[in-house]
What does this fold into?
Amino acid sequence: MSKQRIVVGLSGGVDSAVTAHLLKREGHEVIGIFMKNWEDDDRAAHAAKDDPGYCTSNVDFVDAAAVADVIGIDIEHVNFAAEYKDRVFSEFLREYEAGRTPNPDVLCNAEIKFKAFLDHAMRLGAEKIATGHYARVRHDAQTGLHQLLKGIDPGKDQSYFLHRLNQSQLAKTLFPIGKLLKTQVRQIAQEIRLPNARKKDSTGICFIGERPFREFLNRYIAKEPGPIRDPRGRLLGEHVGLSFYTLGQRQGLGIGGLKPRGAQKGGGDHEPWFVARKDIQTNTLWVVQGHDHLWLQSTALQAQDISWVAGSAPSELPYAAKTRYRQVDAPCYLSNASLEAFALRFAQPQWAVTPGQSAVLYADDICLGGGVIASTQPSE
It folds into this structure.
């Protein structure tokens, strides 16, 4: 690759730090950008004085600046909080209020990191942007298209979160560590003595951080208590609001001590309870006993809000799909595929397929794109 001006998203973590180092070592002109995407906790902390908040952006920026100093590149602090709240967080709340479970990381990549950030980098005269994602981009000379590939490290692959990227975005994007294992990234960081070489990977979403999820939602969504019922219709307790639960959830139901007789097939008298269905019309939370209960198994799904990496729907053939991050690829058959919707039928029932999450399609290592799960077909 010829020498280029490349803007790297520096998060303060080791992955983006090694990304910047690798590009600088190749001789490129590298500029670091630290993206601040959330500031509500900063305001709360400033008002309370004794509450540091949960979003660690201030600490992360210090780490990113220290990395830039070691590598020998400039770094700019850019505030995308307004764009994030408008394009990502507002949609996140709308989905939860509708009883679905959205994935804000997917939206953040599509709307902030590869749109607002990309636009800002282009204004700086960048020819490419780069991030510390575990994924790869390959140009197919035969079709002229850019392909999104899984990262080499199967335990860190992040193509699931990147499936909404289009041809224009991929053409301007580099993922230097996608060809490395996480252990190799850590080793490089230690060899060049990066200050964050041993920093733990961030978990969860910035605006939630390590706090209890329900505690966070309480600040934005009103509670609407309603009944918790089992498949036989028996009242087991009261939920605090359907928005606060997700399919497959086991903890926080408040009915752990109840073990009624006559559990449905797939359950047992002493097996744990799981959220299986949410009925918005009656404000009822339906729960079942046993991880393998039929109500938790789906043989098919319908998806909408579609994004195909190639810009057009793939042929209707057998593929593999993920309905949640880190899930093992599930063999499936694609049908009714268009730019608006598609359907998947699975070879084997899938557990807790959740409306609002993304169904992402793969042909071996190639990520074809995906959509938002709108509905599922239960095994029963």
